[in-house]
Amino acid sequence: MTITLVTGGNKGLGRETARRLVALGHTVYIGARDAARGRAAAEEIGARLLAFDVTDDASVSAAADELRRREDRLDVLVNNAGVFEGMIDAEQASAAHMRDVFDVNVVGLVRVTHAFLPLLQESASPVVVNVSSGLGSFGTVLDPEKNESRYVTPVYSASKAAVNMLTVQYAKGLPRMRVNAVEPGFSATDLHGLSGHGIQTPEEGAEAIVRYATVGPDGPTGTFADRAAPLPW
Q1: Where in the chain are the domains?
Q2: CA-CA distance, 202 to 188, in Å (whole number)?
Q3: What b/e string do you get for 169-208 counting C-beta neighbours within 10 Å, with b at 16 or more?
Q4: With contact defined as beta carbons under 8 Å apart, do 187 and 202 qualify?
Q5: CA separation for the pair 137, 64 (Å, rounded)
Q6: With 31 labelled, which of 20, 91, 199, 206 sits at a CA distance of 20 to 30 A?
Q7: What DSSP character marks residue 72?
Q8: Distance CA 2, CA 25 (A)
Q9: Of 29, 156, 170, 212, which residue is the catalytic one?
């Protein structure tokens, strides 16, 4: 039985990823800051709740201790929890905005990965998936043919560029693990409130996450891709 943790798993892409992995036979723990919403989502999809806040050291540490009491290892960690503080442009971007977004998207990812690393190291085939964005790709945002080039999002984009670099560094430093970054694509979730033409469903957005959450020990590591193809850093 594959033991999997999906942070931010009570809604949106996290919930759909958790649902798909449950259907594939994983024992899935939903990481959720709101215990009531997390419990409701877990019950609906057949997952289990692990309540914690990725911005709080003590909360994350306690969650890792709780998972160790319940399981002897963690096989898959999906770092999905993230925030998008709207279309903050270059003139609006401030240290406060940067601090708030980085604390969830970057520091939160490191906080969770560090806390659960001992459990991952107990797995025979540990996997880490970091949910990133094409808005954090230098090659994508500078390509006039790409939709992402239309947006100026210095705070969010910088946070996802940091996620991409963390992915490469973890992959280099933890060679026994498969560590990859994925771009789910513009999906209809409440992260940004976008919907309509050209916006994917959460089911479509979860495809790349699920694909990389289920790689084997000989699978790729240190890569960045969407559901169709590799992406430029």
Answers
A1: 3-225
A2: 6
A3: ebbeebeebbbbbbbbbbbbbebbeeeeeeebebebbbbb
A4: yes
A5: 31
A6: 199
A7: S
A8: 7
A9: 156
CA 21 to chain CA centroid, nearest Å = 14
**Is 151 assigned a catalytic role?**
no
Across the strands, what pairs with 226? Answer: none
pLDDT digits (tens, 9 = 90+) for 55-78: 999 999 999 999 999 999 999 999
Q: What is the dihedral of CA 160, 170, 60, 131, to 10 degrees?
A: 30
The CATH code of the domain at 3-225 is 3.40.50.720
Type of residue numbered 17: T
How big, in percent rounded to 5, are the helix, strand and coil portions of the chain? 45, 15, 40
Structure confidence by residue, pLDDT tens digits, 10-24: 999 999 999 999 999
Q: Are the C-beta atoms of residues 194 and 179 closer than 8 Å to each other?
A: no
